[in-house]
Each structure stands twice: as C-alpha cells, then as structure tokens.
Amino acid sequence: MEFEELTEKIIKCAMEVHTALGPGLLENTYNECLFYKLCKSGLYVEKEKQLPVIFEEIKLECGYRIDLLVENKIVVELKSVKAIEDIHLAQILTYMRLGKFKVGLILNFNVLSLKDGIKRVVNS
Q1: Are 50 and 64 in contact (CB under 8 A)?
Q2: Is the pLDDT of residue 7 over 70?
Q3: Contact 20, 29 (CB under 8 A)
Q4: Full 3-state SS string of the chain
C-alpha cells in the first residue's frame, strides 16, 4: 500500500473515532480507539513503539515512544490540545528522523471538526 492510500485510510479511521467520541477526551482514549479501528481495518499497527537513540557506538533507550506506527511506514502522533504547535512538529520530525520514516501524521482530536486537526508531515 502506498503512502497516500495509507494516510487516507488512517484519516478515515480517525474521523470515525472523532465522530463517535467528539472532542475533549484524553489523548490516550483516542489512541486506544484509533489503534482498535486501524487493526480492525486490516492494517498492521504498533502502539507505543519504542524508538532508541544511537549515539556513536551505543544504543540509548531514552524513552521515546511513537503513539502509533502504521505498516512500519507512517508515524502517527495523537494530540488532544488547543492547537498543534511547533513543538509537536519538532517531536514528530525527531521520531521520523530517528526511525528513518518518510511520512507522519499529527492528529489533534480536540477540535470540532477533525479535518482542522490534521497535519501531514513529510521528511525529505
């Protein structure tokens, strides 16, 4: 499955979760529900995927965790905040760089319409 098709499927599932639950819940609630929805749709999804940092010859388990990694290709970071900020963009770009991933999605569920809470990130 190509990146475009995958991101569309992820966004469709996220919209179904948002429609059912609405805004204002904790991030973890959306994470669990979206994980369930993505798995149910037939996608391979890892939740809370650990991401080590390699520094010189050592591997450091620094506590970095990707909310959802879909099909070993797309990093999905879920938020339930007033607005997506630069720090959220920096966070997903760091995860993408460390894991050598090309595409990421920031999904902010604390909005009236989820389409206003989606940010697609491409790492060149």
Answers
A1: yes
A2: yes
A3: no
A4: CCHHHHHHHHHHHHHHHHHHHCCCCCHHHHHHHHHHHHHHCCCCEEEEEECCEEECCEEECCCCEEEEEECCCEEEEEECCCCCCHHHHHHHHHHHHHHCCCEEEEEECCCCCHHHHEEEEECC
User: Which residue has tokens 């591997």?
Assistant: 59
Distance CA 93, CA 99 (A): 10
Report the distance separating Cα 48 and Cα 29, nearest Å.
13
User: CA 16, CA 57: separation in Å to the nearest integer?
Assistant: 44
How large is the C-alpha radius of gyration of the chain?
A: 14
- The pLDDT of residue 40 is 98
Environment class of 11 (CB within 10 Å of its CB; exposed 0-12, middle 13-18, buried 19+): middle
- Predicted structure pTM score: 0.93
